[in-house]
Amino acid sequence: MPIAVYVLGMSIFAQGTSELMLAGLMPELSADLHVSIPAAGLLISAFAVGMLVGAPVLAVVTLTWSRRTALLLFLGIFALTHVAGALTTNYDVLLATRVVGAFVYAGFWSVAAVTVVALVPKDSRARAMSIVTGGLTIATIVGLPIGTVLGQNFGWQAAFWTVAGLCVLAMAGVLATVPGGRPDPAKAPRLPDELRALANARLWLAFGTTALVTATILVVFSYLAPLLIDTTGLKPGAVPGVLALYGLGSFIGITIGGRFADALPFHTLFTGITGLVVLSAVLAFTASIPAAAIAIAALLGGFGFATNPALNARVFSLAGDAPTLATATNFSAFNVGITVGPWLGGLALGAGADYPALGWIAVATGLAALATVLVAAFLPVSSPDPADRDATGRNRRAA
Question: From CA 259, how far away is CA 282, in angstroms rounded?
Fold first, then answer.
């Protein structure tokens, strides 16, 4: 793997830490900004909205830019939003910085993905993307708890300053390793080609799989802490340890998924989603048993993130020579799932359901995701190229 792939993973770690750390800083933000906990929670929702919009918009804007220039610009703006956030005491200003930061973070994801595709052979794309996306799983294991500790001991602003510093280091890495220069005009992405690629119905089926898998993961994960405390009976001090196990499972899952997703995309998706469905159902029955709940939490992270490289590989394969806008739309699909999963869980809890019932919602969304994979797997083969087939003999490009 080119060193630039690992640098881009480090960059995602820096920005992903910001994406996650507010979940551990709610009490401090609420007290310091003189707002309620739900209002502080809107800072997380604002980030998701910024990402949802930013990916396709910035993918189009930067089509003919030097990828290194775009990556450096996005990292620089992201760092500045955190400097502004650390310096403000105004809730509205902080909310605005979260939207702007998420907007360019989504653009970074899109350009980074296309950069990776250009740097590695076709049969290594999923593995390379698993390294880049692995930065987010490391942020779950390392960035989230460190950000929480910094915020609790030195004020939430310390966490923001740390993220800004990490982004500056990431900029140095991008400058040193990512090739510069504008794309060859003859090979540069063209908006009409990108829009034509989006007309592929199979691609929208892939986007649906991405959104449904992500919603399946988030239905339970969003409420894992209160589930562990109220239903499982763990003490609050034990929750960070369980979340770390979830993060470790995620890291292992995405590493394994990255190894197999290029050659066996359908197998990887089918195994990962089936695991999510079975584990969610088991959790619904055993959430009150500490050993079972802790083990299932780690396994949910593993099976859920094992699907991530295949979800990205499907889009790369289907988009062909016009992957930029398709990749950006796939990142928006991830954020649709991030938004819908917690929303569905919140509806159920608001209606009086208990936390184990979230497992059944995850089963429903997981089965819907599995249906989209099966439909794609059994669609008629449209390409005679053996390279487009996985080990099942089915159409790999359709995957």
Answer: 28
Residue 397: half-sphere exposure toward Cβ, Cα within 13 Å: 15
Q: Which two tokens stand for residue 226?
A: 């209160």
Residue type at 396 in one-letter notation: R
Burial class (CB in 10 A: 0-12, 13-18, 19+), 92: exposed
pTM score, whole prediction = 0.78
Per-residue tokens: 338: 């991030």
pLDDT in tens, 201-247: 888 999 999 999 999 998 888 788 888 988 999 987 788 788 888 88
